[in-house]
Specification:
Elements lengths: L2 E5 L15 E8 L3 E7 L2 E8 L2 E9 L3 E2 L3 H7 L12 E11 L2 E10 L2 E12 L2 E4 L2 E4 L17 E7 L8
Parallel strand pairs: 1-12
Antiparallel strand pairs: 1-2, 2-3, 3-6, 4-5, 5-7, 7-8, 8-9, 9-10, 11-12
């Protein structure tokens, strides 16, 4: 995987946000030059106010994957990839707060039961909060693709898009 982005709508500090329209988009590098794009459309969670920010606790249903190719979607759900049978969701906790005048998002997610922990600043771009790219080694979250392993990139680049379309305070 080369690119994975979380699209979390409504993370605004002056009202309670929600995940009603949230999606997770991703891009997978294959054979070095090809890319597959897709999304996860079923995200549930709740927001809790904390000091100068929010804590978001939720889950992403891995069976909601959609790459516009149902055969590929079924492959992504198999044991070799996301193993949806044993890991039907990607649980996550994200904390958004202001630190020294900068919005920071700290995330802990569990992919295939293994923790993925990172922190990233959020920037306002075209009235939307977007994180700086976060690069992780896919093997650190158990994404070993067996015979296909050498054909898929070793790094996952995460970019979090908040989807906010209103003025931030």
């Amino acid at each position: 995987m080369k690119f994975l982005s979380f699209l979390l709508l409504g993370v605004c500090f002056n009202q309670t946000p929600n995940l009603d329209d949230a999606i997770v988009t991703f891009e997978i590098s294959h054979l070095g030059a090809l890319k597959v794009e897709g999304q996860f459309s079923d995200i549930e969670g709740k927001f809790e106010r904390k000091d100068k920010g929010w804590i978001i606790t939720g889950r992403i249903d891995v069976k909601s994957v959609d790459t516009d190719n149902s055969m590929r979607d079924r492959t992504i759900l198999t044991e070799q990839y996301l193993n949806a049978e044993e890991n039907p969701s990607i649980p996550f906790v994200a904390e958004i707060e202001i630190s020294e005048g900068i919005l920071i998002m700290s995330v802990e997610a569990h992919i295939r039961g293994l923790p993925l922990i990172f922190e990233t600043p959020l920037m306002k771009v075209d009235d939307e909060l977007i994180s700086e790219p976060v690069v992780i080694d896919r093997e650190s979250v158990g994404l070993d693709f067996g015979l296909m392993d050498s054909m898929i990139g070793n790094e996952i680049t995460l970019v979090i898009h908040s989807g906010i379309k209103r003025r931030l305070h």
